[in-house]
Every structure is written in C-alpha cells, then in structure tokens.
Amino acid sequence: MSSAACSGRPICWRREPTSRPGASTRRPFKAAEDRAVDGAVASQESAGLDVVTDGEMRRLSFQSQLAEAVSGFGEWDVDAFLWGDWQSEAVGDHSLERPRNLGVVDKLERKRHLSVEEFVYLRSRCAGIAKVTLPSPSLYANF
After folding, report:
1. 112: left (phi > 0), else alpha (psi -120 to 50), else beta?
2. How confident is the model over 93-111, as pLDDT tens digits?
C-alpha cells in the first residue's frame, strides 16, 4: 500500500470546493482515488472473485453517497453516520451524541447521480461483474 492510502483508502481529506468543476485542485485527489480503486479491483480479481466492487474508496462512509449527491441536508461529517452507543472489545463502551444540525433542512434536490461515476469507472477497470453498493433507505430514518 502506498503512502497515499490509509486503510486502503486515499488520504482522508475532504474535497475542497472549487470555483469550477474539474479545477486543477481536484485532479490529484481524483488520481489518488483512481489508484485506490485500481488496487481494490486487482486484489479482488487476484483472489478469484467473480463480482468486484470499487472498495468504496470514493466515500467518506458507505452511507455518505446520498448526502453528497443531494442538497438539502444540514451540515454533516463522518459523525453523522457513527452516532449512537457502541460496544466492542477494541473500544469498550463508547457513546457519540447525534450531531445537532443533522437532517433535512431544505427541499432535497439531486446534485448528481448517486453512484454513476463510481460504477462507470469500476466497470472500465474490471474483467468480471462490477457492483456498487447502495445504502438502504432505512439507514436514513434517523439522519
């Protein structure tokens, strides 16, 4: 794994807003995402999997696609998907409060398709069946 990855994912930074789509500041991040997806595909194919995913390398969380693709949600970060009570041997008992501004604050409007870009790139990179994960609508009941 290259130094441009953490847990197999591109460096954990948020995309910076730019004045125009495709601005040069986005290119290095996109290239890092592409390399991470290519690595995930190669690993799955070398393991003999018939169906491969992009490893969700372009997502902050497996649930973040909806909030990124649709306007009208309040401000959110990764805690929007982690709040609640957690118990495990690794972290023990952990509780994270629900973020204050979480939820719908305005009319929901599509900014982009949910996962088309992910799927098109994945399909162009794999020999087998491409699969992109979509979160269940019920995951957003408490969003």
Report:
1. beta
2. 988 888 887 888 999 999 9
DSSP calls for 46-115: HTT-SEE--TTTT-SSTTHHHHHHEEEE----GGGGT-EEEEETTTEEEEEPPPTT-SEEEEEEESS-SS
Name the nearest CA neighbour of 101 among 120, 82, 76.
76
Instruction: Please state, in angstroms and as integers, the Cα–Cα distance from residue 58 to each residue in 89, 95, 128, 143, following that order.
Output: 29, 27, 20, 21
Query: Per residue in 31-59, pLDDT tens?
Result: 999 999 999 999 999 999 999 999 999 88
Angle of helix 27-46 relative to helix 116-125, nearest 10 degrees?
Answer: 50
CA–CA separation, 130 vs 19, rounded Å?
33
> What tokens were used for 61?
């969380």
**Which one has a higher pLDDT value, 6 or 70?**
70
8 SS3 class: coil
* Predicted TM-score of the model (pTM): 0.70
